[in-house]
Amino acid sequence: MLTVDYDLLDLRPGATVLDLGCGEGRHAFEAYRRGAHVVAVDHGVSEVATTRQWLGAIAEAGEAPAGARYEVVRGDLLHLPFPDGSVDRVIASEVLEHVPDDARAMAEIVRVLKPGGRVAVTVPRYGPERVCWALSDAYHANEGGHVRIYRGDALRARLRVAGLVPGRSHHAHALHAPYWWLKCAVGVERDAAVVRAYHRLLVWDLTRRPLVTRLAERVLDPLIGKSLVVYADKPAVAAGALPEREKTAAAR
C-alpha cells in the first residue's frame, strides 16, 4: 500500500532515495523495484531487520533491475548519518507527526537533499485524524504516538521555513479512514467483529485491487483521504545566493 506517487516524486532509475521512518519498507520496496539506490532508515530494530530481509528477498527474486542497490540503516531522524547534499529524493511518510521537534527533522531533510532534490512528506490528514483523537486517547497518547495534527497550510508553511518550496499535493487512503474511526469508537485494543469485518475488506482491496474499490477511493480521497501528501523541492540555488558567473559580473 503506497501513499507516495512516484511519478510526482520524479523518482528515476539510479537516483539515491532516502526512505525516512521506513517502517517495514513499503516505499523502499517500490523504489528499489524502480531501479533506485535505496537507503531505508528507521529507529526500530525490528523494522530495520524486516526491511532488510524483504529487500534481500526482492533482490534474490530478480524483481529489481540491474544497477538498483539498497542499504538499511538504523538511525535518528534528527541526526541523519549522511553528508550534506548527498541524496536526490527523500520520502518521509507518516513520520513527522511522531517527532516532537519536527523543525529539526525538516532541517535534516533539507541538509541531506541535493540542490534541486525533492521530498515527499505524508502525514495524517487533519479532518480524519481529528475524529480519531476525539474518539480515543489511546489512539495517539502513547509512547511513540502522534504528537500533533497538521493542517495542510501549516505543513506547507513549515516546509517553506525549512527552506523548501512546496508544490503538488494530494490525499490518499480514503477507505482506511472509516476503519480507524471504527477502531477508535469501539476501543483500539478491542477485537470487535465490526473492525475485523472492515479489516477483511481492506485486505481484499489490497490483494485484489478490484475496480469498485479503486473507483470509490478515487472519489473519496479528496473528501476523507486518511493521508495528506505534499511534494516539495530544495531550490537549486540557495535563497539570496548568486551563481558564480553572476557574482563575477556583479563585482565588475
Written description of the protein model:
The protein is built from 10 helices and 7 strands. With 252 residues, the chain is α/β, with parallel strands linked by helices. The chain has a domain at 6-125 and 143-173 and 227-236: 3-Layer(aba) Sandwich (Rossmann fold), CATH 3.40.50.150. It has a 7-stranded mixed sheet with strand order 3-2-1-4-5-7-6, sandwiched between helices.
Shape field? globular
In helices, the fraction of residues equals: 40-55%
Q: Can you tell me the CATH architecture of the domain at 6-125 and 143-173 and 227-236?
A: 3-Layer(aba) Sandwich
Uncertain stretches: 242-252
List its traits.
252 residues, 10 helices, 43% helix, disordered C terminus, 7-stranded mixed β-sheet, S-adenosylmethionine-dependent methyltransferase activity, Rossmann fold, 7 strands, Methyltransferase domain-containing protein, alpha/beta
Gist of the model:
By secondary structure, the chain is an alpha/beta fold. It contains 10 helices and 7 strands.
Structural topology:
Blueprint: H1 6-9, E1 16-20, H2 26-33, E2 37-42, H3 45-60, E3 69-74, E4 87-93, H4 102-112, E5 113-124, H5 126-135, H6 152-162, E6 165-172, H7 176-186, H8 193-208, H9 211-224, E7 227-233, H10 244-251
Parallel strand pairs: 1-2, 1-4, 2-3, 4-5
Antiparallel strand pairs: 5-7, 6-7
